[in-house]
Fold this sequence. Notes:
The chain is an alpha/beta fold. Helix content is 25%, strand content 12%. The two termini are 24 Å apart.
Amino acid sequence: MPETPGRSPDFPPNAPSSAWPLRSAAIRLESKFGPIFLIWDLESQTLQRVWIAQDGSAGDIGAVLAMKVSGAPELVRTAAAFIEALLSGAGRAFVFPLELIPLQQCPGFQRKILSAEHAIRPGTVSTYARLAEAAGYPGAGRAVGSALSHNPFPLLIPCHRTIRSDGSLGGYQGGLAMKRYLLEQEGISFLNNGKVDLKCVPYGI
């Protein structure tokens, strides 16, 4: 029997500093869309979260130890370089290796959705309904949207490539301006009404 889709318990987008685990460290990347933090556990050296801070929420990182990029574990430095390339447009055809992303910290349903999302190729899109079916949960498009909105690893797992069935963007942790920018960097065409031109864009899953 398949799992019942549920909401991920990972950190909320605007979590107060008390919500971060003890003994965590972070590096900060600057972007045109605001700061991006890569947070990892100091004991296990495991990446915990890629956090796109918005609306002044960067101040909530206060309880986490700030580190220089050079002091981060190799995986975190690799992830940071990937994100910087992606946001500059230089890494638009790159795919971050799924085996380097610690999905084991996610609930089973979310893990399956994020794995399916990772399979969407650059320059293509999916819809929440199509992704639900591909992951083995037909009809669970709304739950898929919730799982993606709480993706602990945005940018590494390209949840910007899933949109609504009518071509509108839906939601995104980094905001719709970032979502559209990332899609345009991959060659995705948009109509004058702001929707993805589904007649010209292939489905990746």
